[in-house]
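Notebook entry, structure prediction.
Reason for the run: the old model in the group folder had no record of what sequence produced it. Starting over properly, with the input documented here first.
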Amino acid sequence: MSRLFDTLFETAKRCIECAEPETKVALTRETFDALREGLLSLDGAGVRPDPIGAPGRPAKPRLVMPRDVPQRGLGTDEGRAALVHAVAHIEFNAINLAWDAVYRFRGMPDDYYRDWVSVAHDESRHFSMLSARLAQLGHAYGDFDAHNGLWEMAMKTAHWCLARMALVPRVLEARGLDATPGMIARLRTVGDDATADILEVILREEVPHVAAGTRWFRWCCQREGRDPDATFAELLREYVPTGLRGPFNLEARRAAGFDDAELERLAIA
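New structure, fully documented this time:
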């Protein structure tokens, strides 16, 4: 349990390092509640974080290259379980990414830390919902291979909060805004309303997560005297040289803070 006068950074590190999924979820919920109740200090912003190579995670799923993750159709329980597992893996990584954003980047406004603790809390709830659905389908987290792309981008942007805010929420997580409506439609076509309903909740709640990335990316740009649109385009060229592939959920991206110039650039990409 968190103790009065623990710092948020100490508890964030405990959450990142925890390898057991259910315990990580419980620690995340506890830390969210403790911060909301004023039981955690935000002191220590001037202390350098310890290096974080890999977050705590269970021995399974086995991590493979993205191209080696098998693609399964949604016409069978096994195929639907594989899809649920893939999304659960994204949400598990998203818990670690949110805590890493809290722990790694010091000297940000208090609202920055509150935002990312709230994101971690949401992601942990999403993971629990998906884990329960996996159990209904006769599986558990770890039963299928997965890839490590989200955390690899976290490592590439570990040196610079501005790049992290641009490339993890506004690129990788925004892809979920684009891809999820199609998944929901396909699931409803095959009669899996239970999974589709969960993805509807996740899609709705991911919009403010991407919006938090937008908000703090632009805050970082202002602090550094950079133009946000030009900087975002520059970061895409450097880190995503193959470009972003559509179709794009322009309505959700607009709700998440993408401006007209960014959306026009996506539309013609």
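Summary: The two ends are 49 Å apart (CA to CA).
The old model has been moved to the deprecated folder.
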